Automatic annotation (TrEMBL):
<dbReference type="GO" id="GO:0006749">
    <property type="term" value="P:glutathione metabolic process"/>
</dbReference>
<feature type="domain" description="Hydantoinase B/oxoprolinase">
    <location>
        <begin position="5"/>
        <end position="524"/>
    </location>
</feature>
<protein>
    <submittedName>
        <fullName>Hydantoinase B/oxoprolinase family protein</fullName>
    </submittedName>
</protein>
<dbReference type="GO" id="GO:0017168">
    <property type="term" value="F:5-oxoprolinase (ATP-hydrolyzing) activity"/>
</dbReference>
<feature type="region of interest" description="Disordered">
    <location>
        <begin position="467"/>
        <end position="487"/>
    </location>
</feature>
<dbReference type="InterPro" id="IPR045079">
    <property type="entry name" value="Oxoprolinase-like"/>
</dbReference>
<dbReference type="GO" id="GO:0005829">
    <property type="term" value="C:cytosol"/>
</dbReference>
<dbReference type="Pfam" id="PF02538">
    <property type="entry name" value="Hydantoinase_B"/>
</dbReference>
<dbReference type="InterPro" id="IPR003692">
    <property type="entry name" value="Hydantoinase_B"/>
</dbReference>
């Protein structure tokens, strides 16, 4: 299409975006499980006939970047056998380009007058898909067979007729079948909204014109992306990071990244990264790509459309058999932690040349506690993606109460936890004196304390950054690591960051989790004393920490105030210290 009306292109882009966002709203409102409905661990996208993403719902970036690979699997597998009324389901990382088994894709083709004109695509993290632990986030799994039910792309509905046998198989293999079927039906409803939205658009404008503008949107986005990349100085930028390791005797898992900028193209190479492990933190290559795309998208200033064209200027290389490009039978249940680390590594590698576009390191994504068992004669599974804060930026402190950029998710409200599960949340708030000191302070950690009220249960946990805490930038200090404790009667037990052996819970046991915090930016002794005073007034920094970490002396018992003379003297002494 040679003649492009830029206003019409913007109209089409916003129409595609609106369809994807409507899908997200419908899925959230119709979902049954807290992890989908309240944590919003799901994603939606509208794709063109080739399976290329045209628009993404405002949900989880780490899901969205892998849609294209999943769609290629589906399109190749069902070439010549895609019909109006079909609904496809799949979750397997190796047979459906999935990410981990809890993430089920529900996909529907969109037809108009017998012609395939697009695809409605969703992915949602289901509360449980079977396997050896409730919640199916088995860090101790040694192979994917142990993690739950594996589904290649199959037809859940064919020409509008549900496959009752497949539905029955799914229900029989999970602990909370009503939540599974409820969330799958919510995904199907979201796809239905996309079908209606796209067909309505194509009755307003000619089909070929809409598809031509869809193609142009990819090309336009590619041009914008390449222009953004040209603003980054050519060169190769490296960073090394770690996941603490699995279980009681963790061995660090190493991430080596080399980011090479050459003109208008960028290559992300993971040579030197640890090999895949016998534990659920491995990730398939599509998920690694998604993490890379998320990181790069975050440092680009233009209002880039969220479509496939962005990815054309980006090459991702990852050695086969590594933790970032796992091969069968590697387990992938807790692959999210690796995705977050992928994003953090790329951001850190680019920090020296793009200091005004990045932040210091944060808590490494969500902590994922899962508590499951039996209560009142019925099974239950509670899990959530517990988000906390960010690291400091060049121009402001790290934020609290926000998700990692890789997952636009939320913490489950206390009222909903207590109303639906045998759990009482005893404490929930900000943990003082945790943010990494700096001229700009890192975001403070978040704490939650859960009391188990059920008859019997088990706890699993995914967290990180105890041995390798969130780093600061430009002289900023590291943030704090996580705290994981179970109190049972008079006994207190400290848990690993990645719990590979489920912890048995009895009625009255209490689990305390404090997330990692954010790293600081700049010399803490250059922080504005008035900002330190405000933190003390807010109760997020103690007087002792103000003095020890920032060289700020707070006077006044009832009404805290600055002692400027003592502060100046203390900071002068601090700078003279070797």
């Amino acid at each position: 299409m040679r003649d492009i009306d830029l206003i019409r292109l913007e109209v089409m882009k916003n129409a595609f975006d609106t369809i994807a966002d409507e899908m997200a709203l419908i899925l959230m409102r119709a979902a049954h499980s807290p992890i989908v409905r309240d944590s919003m661990d799901f994603s939606t996208a509208l794709c063109d006939p080739e399976g290329q993403t045209l628009a993404q719902g405002v949900t989880t970036p780490m899901h969205l970047g892998s849609f294209y690979d999943a769609m290629r699997h589906l399109i190749v597998r069902y070439a010549g056998d895609v019909h109006e009324g079909d609904t496809f389901i799949g979750n397997d990382p190796y047979a459906a380009a999935g990410q981990h088994l809890p993430d089920f894709y529900i996909v529907q083709p969109i037809f108009l007058d017998g012609r395939l004109v697009g695809w409605a695509t969703t992915v949602a993290h289901h509360a449980d898909v079977g396997g050896i632990v409730p919640g199916s986030n088995a860090l101790g799994a040694t192979e994917i067979i142990q993690e739950g039910i594996r589904v290649p792309f199959l037809k859940l509905e064919e020409r509008g007729r549900p496959d009752a046998k497949l539905w029955e198989i799914l229900r029989l293999n999970v602990r909370v079948p009503d939540q599974l079927t409820g969330d799958l039906n919510a995904q199907i409803a979201a796809c239905g909204a996309a079908r209606r939205g796209l067909t309505e658009l194509m009755t307003r404008y000619p089909v070929d014109e809409v598809l031509a503008y869809a193609e142009e949107l990819h090309d336009y986005t590619e041009r914008l992306t390449r222009a953004e990349i040209r603003e980054i100085p050519d060169g190769t930028y490296r960073f090394t990071d770690h996941i603490d390791g699995l279980g009681e005797s963790p061995e660090p898992i190493v991430f080596e990244v080399a980011v090479t900028v050459a003109g208008d193209a960028i290559t992300i190479d993971w040579e030197g990264t640890s090999g895949q492990v016998e534990g659920g933190v491995n990730t398939p290559l599509p998920f690694t790509k998604a993490g890379v795309y998320t990181a790069l998208r975050s440092i680009m200033g233009s209002e880039l459309p969220n479509c496939h064209g962005f990815t054309r200027a980006v090459t991702v290389a990852a050695p086969l058999g590594t933790v970032v490009n796992a091969v069968y039978p590697a387990p992938t249940g807790a692959r999210g932690i690796t995705g977050y680390r992928i994003i953090d590594c790329v951001i850190a590698a680019l920090a020296p040349v793009l200091p005004d576009r990045v932040t210091a390191d944060g808590p490494g994504g969500a902590s994922v506690p899962a508590i499951g068992g039996w209560h009142d004669g019925r099974p239950f599974v509670f899990s959530e993606t517990l988000m906390g804060c960010w690291g400091a930026a060049l121009g402001h402190d790290g934020q609290e109460g926000v998700p990692h950029m890789g997952a636009n998710q939320a913490n489950v409200p206390i009222e909903l936890i207590e109303a639906n599960f045998p759990i009482r949340v005893r404490r929930y708030g900000i943990a003082p004196d945790t943010g990494g000191p700096g001229r700009q302070r890192g975001g403070h950690a978040l704490l939650r304390e859960y009391e188990f009220l059920g008859e019997s249960g088990v706890l699993t946990l995914r967290s990180d950054k105890r041995d390798f805490p969130p780093h600061g930038l430009d002289g900023g200090e590291a943030g704090s690591g996580p705290i994981n404790r179970v109190l049972s009667g008079d006994t207190e037990r400290t848990l690993p960051v990645l719990v590979t052996v489920p912890v048995r819970l009895r009625r009255g046991d209490v689990f305390l989790h404090v997330t990692p915090s954010g790293g600081g930016w700049g010399d803490p002794l250059t922080r504005d004393p008035a900002l330190v005073l405000q933190d003390v007034i807010d109760g997020t920094v103690s007087r002792a920490a103000a003095r020890a970490r920032y060289g700020v002396v707070i006077a006044g018992e009832d009404r805290p105030c600055l002692d400027l003379a003592a502060t100046a003297a203390l900071r002068w002494d601090g700078r003279r210290m070797p």
